Amino acid sequence: MSDKVIGIIGGLGPEATIDLYRKIIIATPAGIEQEHLRVLIDSNPKTPCRIKAILEGGVSSGPVLAEMARGLEKNGADLLVMACNTAHYYYPQIVDAVDIPVLNIIEETVKNIKKQLPGIKRVGIMASHALLQTGLYQEALNHMGLEVIRPSNDEAAEMMAYIFRFKAGSVEDSIQHEVQELAGKLIDNGAQVIIAGCTELPLLIEPEDLSVPLVDPTEVLARAAVSIAKDI
Length: 232
Hints:
Blueprint: E1 6-10, H1 14-27, E2 39-43, H2 50-56, H3 62-74, E3 79-82, H4 91-97, H5 105-116, E4 122-126, H6 129-134, H7 136-143, E5 147-149, H8 153-167, H9 173-188, E6 193-196, E7 214-215, H10 217-230
């Protein structure tokens, strides 16, 4: 059976898109170049801001994301992934736009926690205020019987500010330190595992920075996509 082609709905933001592609490469069992997967990437940072759409009633990102999905399918993608947690607010629109599977980063992450960390009861979510407002992670975790430990509204706004600074090209150590401190507050409040629930966050925090396991949804999504594409 030939490998399937992965399509990435990207640009949300560009660094997160690169990180997802890199993790797909790392997750692929390949001894030579030709054993790697074909990956199509539509990196479109011009997509309307999903955060403004969710929090302020701005222009919806859905139509552009759906069009990107259709384009990737037309150009040969057999399955789709999206390099943004918050954009999964529009997941139903994307699924409706195509006839190929669309993996869901949130569902894959929660399934992974349940499988890999079966004793965990309380899960901390590091995420932007917009993603928390959608309730996507909360609903998925609660459905699996897991308690959600989330930052306060002020802490979530602070987190979002650090993410925007990183998107703007700021990589100073102070941002990483502040993100670690926010994760520490979730741990202090009882979190037994932390989800880095924004695709920029795994670029700002490492597992060794925390006293509990850190789950990287980008890595989980990459491994799930490779598993399907390679039929393993």
